[in-house]
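Co-fold these.
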Amino acid sequence: MLAEAIARLRRWPLRVPLRIHFSLLVVLTVALLGGVNRFYLETRLLEKLENELEMRALDLARYLSADSVDLVLQQDVVGLHKVLSDARRNSPDVVYAFVSDPTGQVIAHTFDSDFPESLKFINHVTADTEHQVSIVRIFGERFRDFAVPLYHGDVGVLRLGVRDGRILAEVAHVRRELILFLLAAVVASATAAYFLTYFRLRPLAAVVSTLERFEPGKPVEPIMVRRHDEVADLALKVNEMMARLDASYRQMQQTEKLVAAGMLASGLAHEINNPLSGLQNCVRRIVAAPQDTRQIEEYGAAVLDATKHIERVVSGLLDFSRTAPQKRSWADFRNIVDKGLDLAAFRLQKNGIQLVRDTPQEPVPILAAEAQIVQVVVNIVLNAIDAMPAGGRLEITLAREGTEAALQIIDNGCGITADHLPRLFEPFFTTKDVGKGTGLGLAVTHSIVTEHGGHIEIRSSPHHGTAVKVTLPLCLDGEECEDIDAAS
Amino acid sequence: MVCGNCHAAVLPPDVSSLREGRTTACVRPDVIAICGHCHEDVAAAFRTSPHYGRTAGSSATPTCINCHSSAGGQISSDLAQRCGACHGKKAPASRPWVVERAPRILDLLRQVTLARAIVAEEIVTAERGGRTNSLRVEIQALDSTVRDIPFEWHRFNLTEAEGRYTTALAALERAHRTLETGQVAGQSPATESSGSVRSSARELNRPLRPGEKPLRFAVASMLGPVATYNAYVGLLGDLAGSLGRPYRLIQRRTYQEINELLLHGELDLAFVCSGAYVALPPDAPVEIVAVPKAAGKSVYHSLIIVHASSPARRLDDLKGTRFAFTDPLSNTGYLYPVFRLAQMGADPSGFFSSTLFSGSHDRSILAVHRKLVDAAAVDDLVYNRIVVPNSPYSSQLRIVETSPDLAMPPVVAPTSAPAEERARYRRFFLTLSEAPEGRARLAALGFDGFVAGVDEHYAPIRRMRETADAR
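Predicted complex below.
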């Protein structure tokens, strides 16, 4: 499991589904936007808020100082106390306020307890400044002490202590909420993006799996399309393309057979030509001595043999190149192998290939469309011939293996390289020069064998040869075979 | 202080060099002695400090004005720079960390100071809310640290100072957190509430119809304006209601102003102080309509009060203190104490260090409570209403003298009004205690009822006034 994961990791770039891509994209976008917002709040808004707080406190300090001047000058300390304590009572941010005279003596303050004398020293204002702020941070809050000279300090100094805590706590609260909101937005949008893309792109998965299952020549159900978007367009195009591919494949399959037939034809011409000259000789002799009945009898039989031979060759070729689908029926695998070898006989002989065949004495019954299995044999033999351009040895062994019939065709030709082996049955895969091969031979062979419920196996080592093994189910009991036929 | 205290007689041509903060030729070299003349303890602490000890006698000795601005005394805002002048990396007395550390400890010092002030307030609030705990003692233990700040600081033992301030701040923060939970909103002693009286009274305080004259009822500012309104508006509403007239409650800052209005016929009725009554000219066209009685008697008293922490036990002890009178025409709040001083052969300006007129009795009480003044003379009717058990005042005020019985402030009316009208007013006041609503109104004022007053009852007050005036 772990090794698998590591192996997958090594395969860079990673396979990342589109929905993850989109989700990540959305998360990034939302996070970026949120980050910008938060940055704005942190810097600009907080700064403005602090300025506003400062202005507010300063306004209060100025207001109090204006009120205090008269009261101090009139020495109305009770009135002064009332002004200060009203400010304290009515503004929850005010922590304290006090007024000291020019000698530094405190004349009125808002403390319930005794005035803390040392408080005087935490801020200081000179007469020529409008005000002075001293910031002290304690108890996790920010306190500011404003010192405002009363009438240029001639009358005294007003000191006002305010706390920022409540507002800043609110800001911190809002900030926390914003982060939570942002997290929620990220999670929600990522989830939404994930599922939306998942559902929107699900038809893509159907397209992919259909294409995976797709094999030219085999019926494939078209992809179901219920929507109208790009994915639907793609699915429709894929359906169309599969149909076209299928059609052209069927055409090519036919072409392939004709190509094979063409290749065989030149050899078969000899098969026909050779008896023909004998035939002519016989006929000529019979014509020359029509009275010689013994000779007529003798040559007549020979003529009959020759024409039978020609008939067999021609009908074999006709059978091979027939396009109409064939019904499956009982057949002896041995006969089929014979027919295939007959078709290829001349090419084997011409290429100086020694044929070694080993077929059992008793019949090897299979249920097959005979012409198709002949095609299988011919295709494999022709490939073997192509692999041995300078002659060689072709071993053909037919044997029963349990409930199956196994046909092995082994050559000692050039072999197939390892990287080509897995692709052998792919349609249009060929190593031959353009015009020499269609690339369909083995694909057709494979599909025929598979359709017959058998399988085909190719082993090869370069420069040593190739072994092709075709196994087909034996058909020993007629009834059972009918079932198989029905099933397939 | 004169220039020569600090500066040598001859100034250099460039006076701006004075601001540089270093001891220059023009500043007398014995700065520490000059400042120490007043700031003795600080100068003493400084002389024990390494600042002084290590460099004593040399020209490098830092003095007060190295850190403090020479004019204002505050610590210069560029303290780090100033420390850096000597403690910089290149300087001979290098301890470069001072530059960074001194401002930090100074800030710590500010924190301790503010924290101490806030926590002290919180303790008072908590105690007022009935929550008492050991925090007060704990915090008071820190006071030596806070109080000694100027002294400690000038020893320039930064490490020790930092340790002390950090410990103190931590203790204060703990106290703050303890008090913060279950914090009771600070109640102001001056707030008085009266819910129902207002709404019923408001109806008659309506705009006048054509030809209609309101009942103008003045109340001298024995209490503050809001307290007066709350106390009298119900009674006045009832009176105006019984007469079927709208009313106006008239208040002025001083008793004198009410007297003036009365003499000019601008009022229909006035509740004046006994002192203001006797200040009216003998032939004034004013007569007493009714006089309130409390505890069965139509008398009240002047109280001389001090803060509980005051050492004064008698009026004599108040010599040289700050004293609050109520109003120059007040009987209990001015006349009585001045009369007493006259008896002792003194007068207020000579006896007290400073005096002021607070304007009303409740404000005088507040002034003593807040130590804005050391003592005050107040009316016992007001005093007994405000200084009730469990009020913030109760344990913090003390009476040093109570006057003999004095005739209560009367309700008066100008004789220019028709006699039957005045009779109607009198009937209203005298029958007030007969009905339950009337008794409720009286209770709100702290009275049992009203009786018909007699001018002769005010004769002793007139005599007091004559004695006082004679001084």
